[in-house]
Automatic annotation (TrEMBL):
Pfam families: CM_2. One of its GO terms (molecular function) is chorismate mutase activity. GO terms for biological process: carboxylic acid metabolic process. The keyword Isomerase applies. This is Chorismate mutase. InterPro entries: Chorismate_II_sf, Chorismate_mutase-related, CM_dom_sf, CM_II_prokaryot. It comes from the Archaea. Residues 2-93 form the Chorismate mutase domain. Keywords: Isomerase.
Amino acid sequence: MTDPTADLTDLRADIDRIDAEIADLIAERVERAEAVADVKSSAGRALVDEDREATVASHHATLFAERGLDPDDGRALAEFLIDVALDRERTVDGEA
Ligand SMILES: C=C(O[C@@H]1C=C(C(=O)O)C=C[C@H]1O)C(=O)O
């Protein structure tokens, strides 16, 4: 008789690994946002770019829809990612 909880352990290990990959990707995204903040600061441009944020949100909605996920969840994820990026950008920009 096989132990069904062994599957649970393996599946949760997969989830933990995937979460670590997500955290790595978020850290990479934040790094790029810092670089964008430097460019915007040098160019005298505002930190917040609402047009770009709308494009990012719509991109996430499409990416989610293409994967059979709820596009509204994609938009919510975009909002979260943008908040994380802007928190760091404000720190770099000396506004925090
Ligand atoms: C990274 C940028 O800065 C901000 C953060 C964004 C993001 O995290 O995608 C998008 C627009 C900006 O409000 C950018 O301008 O591209």
